[in-house]
Amino acid sequence: MSTSPLAQAMGDLDESGACALVAEKLAAGEATFSILEELQAGMSLVGERFESGEYYLSELIYAADIFKKAGDPLQEGLKSASSNKLGTIVLGTVKNDIHDFGKDIVATVLSSNGIEVVDLGVNVEHEAFVAAIREHKPELVGMSCLLTTAFDDMKDAIQAIEEAGLRDDVKIFIGGGPVDQVCADYVGADFYGRTAQDGVIAAKRYLGVSQK
Ligand code: B12
Fold this sequence. Notes:
Layout: H1 5-11, H2 15-27, H3 32-52, H4 57-71, H5 75-78, E1 87-93, H6 101-111, E2 115-119, H7 126-136, E3 140-144, H8 151-163, E4 171-175, H9 181-187, E5 191-193, H10 196-206
Parallel strand pairs: 1-2, 1-3, 3-4, 4-5
Helix pairs in contact: 1-2, 1-3, 2-4, 3-4, 6-10, 7-8
The structure holds cobalamin.
């Protein structure tokens, strides 16, 4: 797949270029989610360059800063008014992982679709998921994970939910860059979502409000 100019600007850490392209696209009426996907593709480029040794941690941190600035004008578009509450999700980035952009986007999109989000933050201890399920009695639990080294933490968190006797009370959704169906099977999740919108569609399906 060819790299779009916006993904390229993000990948090249061209802050003003990325911000200008987002503004242009919004002004031209492009869909928020497709602009977000381009920024995400740019972040993948950053990740590849970091992996190959071309970028260092400082560039990763700078990329995070650019993503935040360039993505900020998209926030409004991610929200769609929904007043009736469909259900609750307890959401967090798993233990040993502090990446939170994806989780925050998932939180915004789910809550604007009528799903109450109990956001536990990042580096969430397994017991914190268990305690939040006991307290908030959600139908859904969402775990975000960007590090392959934290897959076992996600597995352990799900195991802790099981050992607490709560596994049958919730559907567990997982997502984040390296997560896929193989990972979902490995950790024992019910659903893997590639994007925040996938999460909304599946949440509505599990909550019985959509047949999609
Ligand atoms: C930005 C970034 C950082 C920032 C994070 C800033 C922040 N506040 O989040 C900083 C600089 C802090 C960072 C640190 C590190 N990082 Co980093 N980081 C990235 C980078 C470049 C982008 C991540 C991102 O924000 N993407 C954009 C968001 C929007 O995408 P997303 O998270 O995937 O979310 C979307 C979907 O996945 C989905 N989704 C996400 N969660 C969920 C949950 C559910 C339930 C659902 C349904 C959907 C869903 O919805 C979102 C929107 O559609 C990635 C590269 C990449 N390809 O992802 C590396 C990457 C994840 N980092 C990596 C590494 C190695 C690290 C460090 C270990 C580096 C170091 N040596 O210290 C540390 C780890 C710190 C820790 N303990 O967590 C590696 C991980 C490699 C691996 N195999 O695990 C990556 C892949 C880079 C690479 N290719 O090497 N990082």
